[in-house]
Specification:
The protein is of the alpha+beta class and 169 residues long. The protein contains four helices and eight strands; from the N terminus they run βααβββαβαβββ.
């Protein structure tokens, strides 16, 4: 197990987070390679509810962002997880899992109702995320859009992420 330090983002981390996110998604499938711009746009719009870095030997090797989402039913206090980034040389070593657990714990402490994620169902189901019928994200296959409720109930409707998710630079 890596000797990670998980902490909230500081202003001095912004450039390192940008570079890390860019590298983490460089060879990823199913991406427009805009994740680093999304994180900056969320930060600029003051919509980064949670921004945690994973540090190893004073180097940032992982990052997770959580931001508010809107649900067409009006359900309050729901959030979206992502992007989540781990430096390629540290992937599959528990960094992403540590970031996920820390971010979800912080979200619970902030009294969030629940969290949605777009991604690999095999990975995110390990953290309790599951496909919820009638909770959808436009233009996305349902099996890749999942939710986790901290209160046991799930809203219905269409989820909208912040416009920062359309950032391309």
């Amino acid at each position: 197990m890596l000797n990670l330090i998980l902490r909230n983002e500081q202003e001095t981390d912004i450039h390192a987070i940008f570079e890390l996110t860019q590298k983490a998604f460089e060879h990823a499938e199913h991406t427009d390679h805009t994740e680093q711009f999304i994180v900056n746009a969320l930060r600029g719009a003051q919509q980064l509810t949670i921004s945690i870095v994973a540090e190893l030997n004073q180097k940032i090797i992982g990052h997770v962002a959580i931001s508010p989402v809107e649900i067409s039913s009006g359900a309050p206090d729901w959030y979206g997880l992502g992007p989540i980034s781990v430096a390629p040389e540290y992937q599959k070593q528990g960094v992403g899992s540590a970031l996920m657990k820390q971010a979800l714990q912080q979200l619970k402490q902030l009294d969030g109702t629940g969290c949605v994620v777009l991604g690999d169902p095999a990975y995110y189901s390990k953290f309790g995320f599951k496909v919820i019928p009638n909770l959808t994200l436009a233009h996305v296959p349902t099996e890749y859009f999942q939710a986790l409720s901290f209160r046991g109930t799930f809203p219905q409707g269409e989820v909208k992420y912040h416009p920062a998710f359309e950032a391309t630079q």
